[in-house]
Design a protein that fits this description.
binds adenosine-5'-diphosphate; binds magnesium ion; binds aspartic acid; 12 helices; 434 residues
Length: 434
């Protein structure tokens, strides 16, 4: 008999018929001999509607009250699913994050789970009652204040509960059949991936593949929780995210250069902090760290004869701009840096894989593909597991589709080109060497 934590996303609990369908799935899973703990998101669109409500009432909503407001979305769906299960004769009880023992740090809006005390869930399971837990929320360990975990945070709740209960697996039921080589809503040629390592999935998630929240992958990786991403409609296998990776087609050379897939984001802003002297840099980072915001494409340049103004650059999601400005305001007033410049919204496209920084030919090929499409790049960053570029938002889908075509749909030709000029290729003997 398996203990499964099943998380159902917003679309999967989007209306009464879907809530009933979820209840039937839980019933069937129990009938197969499994013990089930359910985690639910807010009904599709509910969190956005609550956010919109808060904005109509306050330009700068109080973070505590905002968390209390947003948490009601998940409470609605948990109680609704418990009602549906009970109506089918399945004993069930809804649990808030606090009831379920989800302990977080105190960062409102972006809290991290620091512990799970699963005693009340255990009691419920012992009594044969299905716990239906609200995703996306917990209680701060020190203050007991309600906190939310950031967008997509129900995935993290599910993984954390699976880790605490030592579940066989954490099943993430969603509106696609698994993790694809690119967002299947924008790239019809994308294919489902059977197995992904935690590292590969973490890079995809951090780059915008929102099918799994990045924090959930990090949690799963550090607690070794096998995660199965699958459709809440079909019955087929989805994608397993675990220690194993999908390397059926890889040989020794390809082991060093491999493309997992493409990810994209829109609504990114580039921030340039001007006049950040080397002495102030650590303080700037310490201040940004307090916001717990994910910064990306971070680069720093000290002033020299050609660049008088030392600058720190990074990208953030547009929704986080206000938090950055607020966090840095005091430091700027104290002279920590000279000023802050923001770009308009840009798109970001990331080629995710491995061996990318050691194979500049892959970067060269990617740049050729984008240039052939007439896509103008704004910034580029090369990491070991990712190459990211920013461009106009309206170019993002074309960019991701063309890169997918070159690197995933027809990977062999590209890989041969890349490996042929890569650092591990046999080097021709030059006259200088002779
Ligand atoms: P849920 O409400 O179930 O949590 P999300 O909307 O958070 O669902 O995540 C599922 C969505 O993630 C899909 O509808 C899809 O558009 C998007 N997505 C982005 N990248 C990928 C990818 N690589 N594979 C699968 N889905 C992806
Ligand atoms: N309801 C929250 C959101 O929309 C959390 C989640 O769905 O995982 O982001
Ligand atoms: Mg989600």
């Amino acid at each position: 008999m398996s203990l499964l934590v099943q998380k159902y996303g917003g679309t999967s609990v989007g209306d009464p018929a879907r809530i009933r369908a979820v209840a039937e799935r839980v019933l069937a899973s129990r009938a197969d001999g499994n013990t089930v703990v359910v985690v639910v998101s807010a009904m599709g669109g509910a969190t956005d509607a609550l956010l919109a409500l808060s904005r109509t009432l306050s330009g700068t909503p109080d973070q505590r009250e905002l968390d209390v407001l947003l948490s009601t979305g998940e409470q609605t769906s948990a109680a609704a699913l418990a009602l549906a299960l009970r109506d089918m004769g399945v004993p069930a009880r809804s649990f808030t994050g606090r009831d379920a023992g989800i302990v977080t740090d105190g960062v409102h809006g972006r809290a991290r789970i620091v512990d799970v005390v699963p005693a009340s869930l255990g009691k419920s399971l012992d009594a044969g009652v299905v716990p239906v837990v609200t995703g996306f929320q917990g209680a701060a360990g020190q203050t007991q204040e309600l906190t939310t975990l950031g967008r997509g945070g129900s995935d993290t709740t599910a993984v954390a509960i699976a880790a605490a209960l030592r579940a066989t697996a954490c099943e993430i039921y969603t509106d696609v059949e698994g993790v694809f080589t690119a967002d299947p809503r924008h790239v019809p040629a994308a294919r489902k991936i059977t197995h992904l390592s935690y590292e590969e999935m973490a890079e995809m998630a951090a780059s915008g593949a929102k099918v799994l929240a990045h924090s959930s992958v990090e949690y799963a990786s550090s607690h070794r929780v096998p995660v199965h991403v699958r459709s809440s409609v079909g019955t087929g296998e989805g994608t397993w995210v675990s220690c194993q990776r999908d390397d059926g087609t890889l040989g020794a050379l390809a082991d060093r250069f491999m493309v997992t897939g493409l990810a994209h984001q829109v609504g990114q802003l580039r921030c340039r902090l001007r006049g950040v002297g080397p002495a102030a840099l650590a303080t700037v980072f310490a201040t940004l760290a307090e916001t717990a915001l994910p910064l990306d494409m971070v680069s720093y340049r000290t002033g020299d004869e050609s660049v008088a103004d030392p600058s720190l650059m990074f990208t953030v999601q547009a929704a986080d701009q206000h938090d950055v400005v607020e966090a840095l305001g005091e430091l700027q007033r104290l002279g920590g840096f000279a000023g802050c410049e923001w770009s308009g919204p840009v798109g970001k496209v990331s080629l995710v894989g491995r061996g990318l920084s050691t194979h500049p030919a892959a970067v060269s090929r990617a740049l050729d593909v984008l240039r052939e499409q007439g896509i103008v790049l704004e910034d580029m960053a090369v990491y070991a597991r990712r190459v990211s570029v920013t461009c106009r938002e309206e170019d993002v889908v074309a960019a991701v589709s063309q890169l997918h075509e070159a690197f995933v749909a027809q990977p062999e030709a590209t890989r041969r080109q890349v490996i042929a000029v890569g650092p591990h290729a046999p080097r021709p003997i030059t006259s200088a060497v002779r």
